[in-house]
Amino acid sequence: MESSLKEVNKGVIEAAISLGASTSQVVLKVLIKEALSGLILGITLTIVNIIGYSAMAGVIGGGGIGDLAVRYGYQRFRTDILIVTVIILILLVEITQRTGNYFAKKIDRR
Question: Are residues 55 and 48 in contact, defined by beta-carbon separation less than 8 angstroms?
């Protein structure tokens, strides 16, 4: 979030202040509006990382799709289950990434 907010042009902030905007107006109507596409990309990256970390947690006993892949796919030599769970993980990440990129591109003001 911090890097997205720091990318906002200082001139835009100064212009809003010179027009008499309060601090809350600068934050809500200028900073967040200008940095929204970067914020969406940051949220998307966070969700993708959570998907990856939850799969890794499943490998060490945390449950979920990683546990399914290891317990039923790898340890029981069921390659079909292993491949399907890996494909599901890839699809989850791909759909999340494409959705985030779509909304970020749609909102981008540059």
Answer: no
